[in-house]
Amino acid sequence: MRPLPFKARLILWYLGLSALIVACWSAGIVSVVRGNLYTGIDGELKLRASQITRALAKSKDGELVDFGDSAVAQLLSKNGRVLDHSGAKFAVEPIVERATVDSAWESSSARFATVERDEDRYRLLVAKMPGTKRLIVVGAATESADDAVSRLVLVMLLTGAVVLVAAGTGGWLLVGRALVPMTEMTSTAASVNMDRLDERVNVPPGNDELAALAVTFNKMLDRLEAGVGDKRRLVADASHELQTPLAVMRTELDVSLASPGLTPESVAVLESAREETDRMTRIVRNLLTLARFDEGTIKLLRKPINMLALVTDSVATLSGLAAEREVEVTVGGDDIVVLADPEYVRLVVVNLLENAVKHSDVGTSVIVTIESVGDEARISVTDTGPGIPEEDQPHVFDRFYRIDRARSKARGGSGLGLAISKEIVEAHEGRVELKSRVGEGSTFRVVLPIVPVAARPKRYGRHAPA
User: Which of 48-57, 84-93, 404-413, 430-439 reaches the highest mean pLDDT?
Assistant: First the structure.
């Protein structure tokens, strides 16, 4: 089960605390009101007991006056036996517990008790009659007081519900307003990537926790930007410096291979060294290209390119690799002219073709199609290789990312070809798409605008001005 959002949890905690406060406050009010009502009843019972005591003292027959069914009165002996009664019919039997009777007899003060009889509740007073060996019990129904308490409880419940709804609504609005700076920080943080390290979050006014969080986050971005900048400069400088020695090594290896009298073992070693030198040269060239993209120093020399001819020529340059892998590469589609940088577009096509051929099984085929859709040119490279797992697809254009590191290393992959291709295509205001299923192969599609947005003539309604 997914946890609730922080805002929802904060509101629930707030409502829980509010509910606890409202419940305690309501219980206190009800308790005070109920106590006051019963105190009033107890006062009336004391007055009635006093009146009955005086009346009995003046009466010659010593009988109790009938108060009706809403009240009750009893005269008890020391052992709790009913000597006389009046009021409700159940008063003929003892209605007070023996422990209360004994306590009242031993004490000079009155004792109070609450009993239920005939589905009604009665409040009772038990007191010792002065100068006699009898106890007097007087009681009154508490129906009116209980009804008042019940109505108060209902009112408190309804009021509490309204208060909680109002508190929840107000809390939701207040929390939402208080979390606006955090939402803005989250949005800014989500937009920060390797190409937008200069983004910073707005520091909210005040000197609170959110402001401290924003300042800390901006300092972290400062450190990250500085570190990435240093890394990029290091890669660019190292790549630039490595080009010359690698070129010298390549030349010396070619000269050594042209020397007469070499044994077959020496030729094999020199050819292996030259192959590794060429591989390192490609990696250095790719790193230098990425560094130029990162620094924004890439300049595109746009020219009209016949995409069908460019793709056909690129296939020809990879004919040796395709023959080695026994992979057939076929090209078909529309004859489209695109305004782009031919050197970089060729690099993209070669990277995709090389990737498709290397990852295709022996004896399979790679199909390249060129088509125009609206004002876009689409170049699709489809292979019948093992396919790319779904969890790896979002990362195939990341730098140095390789799905199968051992197999990619054996085939000479550095994990930079697709990353460079993506940078080049996006620099041309295009995009690279991937469709792949495990066991069925992959299709990489390059989408380029036939005419870049910046190079298109401005339009004024339907017609250009004369």
Answer: 430-439
3-state secondary structure of 361: coil
Q: State the Cα angle at 238 between 250 and 354, rounded to 5°.
A: 55
The angle subtended at Cα 313 by Cα 312 and Cα 316, nearest 5°, is 90
Distance CA 405, CA 278 (A): 20
**Rounded to whole angstroms, how far apart are CA atoms 66 and 84?**
11
Residue with tokens 């609504």: 169
Percent of the chain scoring above 90 in pLDDT:
22
pLDDT band (50, 70, 90) for residue 401: confident
pLDDT for the residue numbered 459: 43
Look at residue 379 and give its three-state secondary structure: strand
Of the candidates 146, 144, 148, 141, the residue with the CA atom closest to the CA atom of residue 68: 141
Integer Cα distance of 35 and 54 in angstroms = 29
The residues spanned by each domain of the chain are 6-150, 209-295, 303-455
Helix axes 180-191, 209-257, angle to 10 degrees: 0
Q: What is the bridge-based pairing of β-strands 431-437 and 441-449? A: antiparallel
- In total, the chain counts a number of residues equal to 466
Answer for the pair 289, 419: CB distance below 8 angstroms, yes or no. no
DSSP assignment letter at 203: P
**What per-residue confidence (pLDDT) applies to 60?**
62
Torsion over CA: 424, 425, 426, 432 (sign) = negative
In CATH terms, the fold of domain 209-295 is Helix Hairpins (1.10.287)
Task: Kindly write down the DSSP assignment for every residue of 161-195, as one continuous string.
Answer: HHHHHHHHHHHHHHHHHHTHHHHHHHHHHHH--TT
Pick the CATH number of 6-150 from 2.30.30.100, 3.40.50.300, 3.40.630.30, 3.30.450.20: 3.30.450.20
Residue 387, both tokens: 């396919």
**Biggest distance spanned by C-alpha atoms of the chain:** 156
pTM over 0.90: no
- Among 419, 399, 416, CA closest to 283: 416
Distance from C-alpha of 430 to C-alpha of 432, rounded to nearest angstrom: 7
CATH of segment(s) 303-455: 3.30.565.10
Residues whose CB falls within 8 Å of the CB of residue 165, separated by 6 or more in sequence, listed in order: none
